[in-house]
Amino acid sequence: MAERIEQRLEDRIPELEQLERVGLFTPKEIRAVLRKASALEYKIQRRALRKEDFVNYIQYEINLLELIKKRRARIGYSFKKEEIESSIVHRVHSLFKRATGKWKEDVQLWLSHVAFCKQWVISKWVLVTSHLLCIKTNSFISSVAALWIMAAKWEMETRLSSESARHLFLRALRFHPECPKLYQEYFRMELMNAEKQRKEKKEFEQAKMDLVGPLNLRYCLLMYHTLESVEFRLAVLSIAKLFDFTQDLQKEILESLQTEYADDPLTWDYMARRELDLGSLKSTEPTTKQMKVSEVTQREERCCAVFEEAVTAVPTEDMWKCYITFCLERCNRKTNSEELKQKRLERTLSVFSKAHESSLLPESLYKQWLQLLLESNLSEKATEVAEAATKRFSLSAEMWQMRLQVLIQLKNDNVTQCFEEAFKHLKSKVCGTLPLWALWVEWSEGTNSKQDTEALYQRSLHATAPAESVTMKEKYLDWAYRNGGYKKVKRVFTSLHENRPLSLDFFRKMIQIEKEQESCKMLHLREYYERALREFGSTDSDLWLDYIKEELSHPQGKPENCGSIHWRAVKMLQGDLVEDFISKYTLLQTGHL
Q1: Which pLDDT score is estimated for 217?
Q2: Max avg pLDDT among 6-10, 167-171, 476-480
Q3: Cα 139 from Cα 107, distance rounded (Å)
């Protein structure tokens, strides 16, 4: 492996010599490039290859290309590109080929290769794309579809070949017949082609256009029936609206929505929002600000009238969510009219109340309602709504957290009582209460005595699930250091270090605290590292390396211990982590880490 790496580094020397000779890089920068390249080469020559190592190497080389480009522009030097850039581009291309050969189904890797080739090796990007399109994978349909669309767009816009673009789309749909995005973009392409033909009709005989135009429209009329879903129909309709010759097509799609999806909230949502675009003022008429406000108000009221009809016809949470989302969007729109702003706020709060009274307000929207109430200084109403929310969703930790945040923000006297009530309702929930405990101790830190807060931390360790108690132990350790100093945190650490499960951050936090002390003792650091390695030594190679670095750099460290630590690491680490550790340890010895 070492010989291969040396050879690859030697292959770089001609381009680096040229960079120095023409004044693009200094000797110091050349040495830095060699050091970095050496470290990157070690990582991609290991037996157990990692994708992120290739990505990092590729990104470094691309950054180098960009830097050279900027340096050239700055000094006005444009020669020797064959000796410098071409060599780097070829190396990046080879790295991509190795990576895509190893991880064939990683579409993002292929897309990155295509993007690189389009920028630096234009002649190769079509070839790379065609290689990817041959991969018949079901795991990344939407991403692969993006590649098909990219290729078809290139045929349509660069090569001006609608036939080739159509052929690619039809081929793509044979591979992915259930992919809505492909159908939508094919639909868009056919409409674009029809529009192009319409614009060119002056250059062709009318008889010829009469044959071609309707043919393309017939393609489009059939397209939107392919996939049965309201989302797909609406997406196709939004595309059709971009073209001024598709009125009949739009009408047909709209009628199909109202007939086939009359009970779907998305259909009602579209029909309501459509009122915003209808009945606008004629541009020839002189308008005043008041007239514009009046018109906007009328349009929004027409929208709300449709929504009111909708929540009666389709009384579901999803339908109310559509209605409320519309009201919130209008409420958040900027306007200079205080009257319009107030109307929007009142309307939104009214719709929230109606949905709540119907017991159809989704849990996720209560937070937005409360936020709006608090922003409007309606504190009493906010408290009332928060209480009602926890009654309706009494087993939801999120609802209780939301209610408690309201009480804390309003400095209510019943915060502690509400916390107790929350945990009484949630006592059957083993998991999911961590945010509540975190909120309680955070509130207690600023309100209660240190003794009460510490009692709360200790209580939380027994009340939370084992996995969640890990976070509370970290918070307890941090609080102890902030409020009691080194001696206090040492006592807390001693009381907890055998109380499993523990996190690596728990030990790293204690290591960092020790290192912040003026009399930082290596004896204590060894204890913390040894305890951490007892828990995580088989799964974290960086922990071993940090331990070795500490022995090498600390005034009280013993470099002679590094050999035994290395031996223990190799024996304890699992799988590929051993090779990863050895590689990093080698870099550490050579000064590259």
Answers
A1: 53
A2: 476-480
A3: 10
251-268 confidence digits (pLDDT tens) = 988 998 999 999 999 999
Q: Tell me whether residue 180 is exposed, middle or buried, using C-beta atoms within 10 angstroms of its C-beta: 0 to 12, 13 to 18, 19 or more.
A: middle
DSSP 360-429: ---GGGHHHHHHHHHHTT-HHHHHHHHHHHHHHTTT-HHHHHHHHHHHHHTT-TTHHHHHHHHHHHTTT-
Q: What is the pLDDT of residues 4-45, one digit of tens each?
A: 888 888 889 899 999 999 899 999 999 999 999 998 998 898
Burial of 218 (0-12, 13-18, 19+ CB in 10 A): exposed
Q: Which residue has the tokens 């969640």?
A: 468
Amino acid making up residue 308 = E
Which letter does DSSP use for residue 337 in this model? -
Percent of the chain topping pLDDT 90 = 56
Secondary structure (3-state) at 440: helix
Rounded (10°) angle between helices 366-375 and 338-357: 140
Alpha carbon distance 49, 139 (integer Å): 22
Q: Using the 8-state DSSP alphabet, how is residue 560 labeled?
A: G
**Residue 487 in tokens:** 């001696």
Burial class (CB in 10 A: 0-12, 13-18, 19+), 47: exposed
What is the spatial distance between Cα 358 and Cα 172, in angstroms, rounded to a whole number? 47
This prediction has a pTM of 0.72
pLDDT for the residue 558: 93
Query: Residue 197: pLDDT band by 50, 70, 90 thresholds?
Result: confident
Angle between helix 265-273 and helix 247-260 axes, rounded to 10 deg: 140
Q: Which of 224, 223, 187, 194 is nearest to 210 (CA)?
A: 194
Closest CA to 524 of 579, 486, 495, 560: 486
Residue among 97, 102, 123 at smallest CA distance from 112: 97
